[in-house]
Amino acid sequence: MHYFEYQGEDLYCEEVPLARVAEKVGTPCYVYSHRTLVRHFRVFDNAFADLPHLICYSVKANSNLAILRLFFQMGGGADILSGGELFRVLKAGGNPGKVVCSGVGKTEQEIMFALRTGILMFNVESSQELELIDRIAGQMGKRASISLRVNPDVDPKTHPYISTGLKTNKFGIDIRDSLDEYRRARRLANIDVIGVDCHIGSQITEIGPFMETLSRLSALVEQLRSEGFDIRFLDMGGGLGITYLDETPPQPQEYARAIIDRVSSLGLTMIFEPGRVIVGNSAILLTKVLFTKKGVSKRFVVVDAGMNDLVRPSLYDSYHHIQPVRRVSRHKDIVDVVGPVCESGDFLARDRQLPEVRPGELLAVMSAGAYGFSMSSNYNSRPRPAEVMIRGEEIHIIRPREEYEDLVRGEHIPDFLVAEDPEY
Ligand code: LLP
Q1: Tell me, which fold does domain 34-276 have in CATH?
Q2: Which is catalytic among the residues 29, 56, 101, 342?
Q3: For a pLDDT cut of 70, what percent of the chain falls above it?
Q4: Model pLDDT for residues 307-349, shown as the tens digit of each residue
């Protein structure tokens, strides 16, 4: 469900024709629908209304300050992975008491920053990390609240790069070792054990893996409680999938109902770390056709957005629907939609059927709100695109297009190189 729809022959975001956005801001450009963001957050949050819960939006999916701010205003917290993400959360006015910190490689500086800030808890991913957090908390005269991120060894049945809950993945502490690790944690002087955490993967389109995980984790919670642990939180991570093409993931209500049924008797506060399901379908990447060309065996549509702007097709071979911003009745071609980047892997779609397009026309790459801008880069020294939030009839630039000066910010030519002029 989203608010990108044709009115007549023109594709709109809410009440604004996308062609107008291109005119005003240029291309490529990420366009977010405020109404979609609000709706998705509410639907997810309301689905758990019957249960004490906290939505810790996963900042890595999209970390623009305006988007964070919007979710914080709706009562959300944050799941962070780095000091940089914590910095963003604070900048956007997030409540540190609603922040959970995951990640296999937390540094000393990041742990100190999080402890200083007073986050809700660390989701600890190894024994060494646990010891480090204990030591740093001791040095700072603080106590650190933690969950262990338990790796339940459940197959989330998703792309191998984004599955995290298998025993072959680097994430979390194997469920078979988790009890021992909890007992060790309890003996540490500066650690308060308050929860159990997991995250099994992303773009999960079946309910089964979540349920399997939940039954393993609720058994662990009961075992821990029987040993006197005061477990108050159960964090299910994120991972609920969305429709890019024809996937039929469980709706948040269905996901919630299944979870509520199983955990309500435990009297826990549930934590969720959704990313994609909230922001994925809230945005498009607006791009302009530069050229069309016919190779020996393929037709190419060369557009002004590349893999540096949206890497998902190149990295995961993932599907993003592509629609013309002005609907035309022309014959259809099978084309590769490619960007200007100097890599054969630079494509947004391959062997895609599209109505013939011409230079200067606009295309909308759909479902680009999650892991779109947040994974973008400056490869090929391409300034990153603008980000725009549409609210009704309003167009708000929430990140201007980068300029050339942004590309070299902080770079420095050392004196010994300045001294001599280049040879021409
Ligand atoms: N919690 C943790 C600990 C995570 O690692 C992630 C995502 C999430 C929550 C949010 O998961 P979501 O609800 O968005 O599925 N770049 C990939 C996805 C990587 C996911 C990384 N972790 C992609 O573009 O598909």
Answers
A1: TIM Barrel (3.20.20)
A2: 342
A3: 100
A4: 999 999 999 999 999 999 999 999 999 999 999 999 999 999 9
CB atoms within 10 A of CB 73: 12
Cα(419) to ligand 1 centroid in Å equals 48
Task: Map tokens 């959970």 to a residue.
Answer: 100
The Cβ of residue 219 has, within 10 Å, a number of other Cβ atoms equal to: 11
* Tokens coding 365: 């790459």
The pLDDT assigned to 156 comes to: 84
Q: What is the rounded end-to-end Cα distance, in angstroms, of the chain?
A: 58
Q: For residue range 161-207, what is the model confidence (pLDDT) as tens digits?
A: 767 767 777 889 999 999 999 999 999 999 999 999 999 999 999 99
Q: Which of 294, 251, 258 is nearest to 274 (CA)?
A: 251
Nearest CA among 92, 63, 90 for reference residue 372: 63
Tell me the pLDDT tens digit for each residue of 99-154: 999 999 999 999 999 999 999 999 999 999 999 999 999 999 999 999 999 999 99
Cβ(148)–Cβ(181) below 8 Å: yes
* Domain definitions of the chain by residue range: 4-31+280-408, 34-276
**Active site (annotated) includes residue 342:** yes
- Pick from 273, 316, 348 the residue to mutate for probing ligand 1's pocket: most ligand atoms within 8 Å of its CB: 273
Assigned token pair, 81: 């992975």
Residue 388 binned pLDDT confidence (cut-offs 50, 70, 90) = very high
Fold of 4-31+280-408: Lyase, Ornithine Decarboxylase; Chain A, domain 1 (2.40.37)
Mutate to test the pocket of ligand 1, among 82, 272, 276, 277 (most ligand atoms within 8 A of CB): 276
Within a 10 A sphere around the Cβ of 293, how many other Cβ atoms? Answer: 12
